[in-house]
Amino acid sequence: MKKIRGRMDEAILVCVYYGPNGERLIKRGHKLANMLDCPYYILTVDPLPYDEFDEEKSRYVDRWKELADELDAEEFILRDNESKSSVKAIKEVAHKHNITQVIIGQSPQNRWEEITKGSFVNVLLRELTYIDIHIVSFDRNVRNNDEDTEYERGVRAFLKQDKNGEYKLTFARSHENRYEGIFYKDIGTDFNNGVFKFIYDGKNCQLHITEDKVTTKIKQPPNLR
Fold it and tell me: Is the entire prediction scored with pTM above 0.85?
């Protein structure tokens, strides 16, 4: 049985994505909700349908559902098979549940990164008017042998072209995939932002990924428009 909250003029939305930081964000939201004595919700957004999630993704979702029950969240919301961007999905959920405060995670981002990659937070701020946004900053303290790396360990991934001709990142094998490679996720972010590396025509290619979509292109293959 969920705790009856005293204040209903405040409501918190915790936005999580796959990675080790999701549980920390949920606990931060729970703590803030207890301080304000208000309800809170947990949201994750994914362009894939739930039945196409790999084992790792499914494990994260199961754990977040458990936390939602353990920590008295009002609801765990899974927006799977989502065609809209994460920002648009967050906006819709926030308005539906009269959210007043949103909690997201993001690693420290310098000015050069904002220029080259864009800022997810800036886009969110423009969309969520009259809503407070709490940014939980995660230190880049996860390192491999290269101490200057800004990415998590690489995982097998694919690029699939949608009906609009855009290339999107996916972790599910499919005959519709156009390219196979390794995705290196930015450390500290709870969204699929990072670099996709693969071999094309015997050459190393590298593409920037922002929220599952190919953005800045480096050494692009001739037919990758």
Answer: no
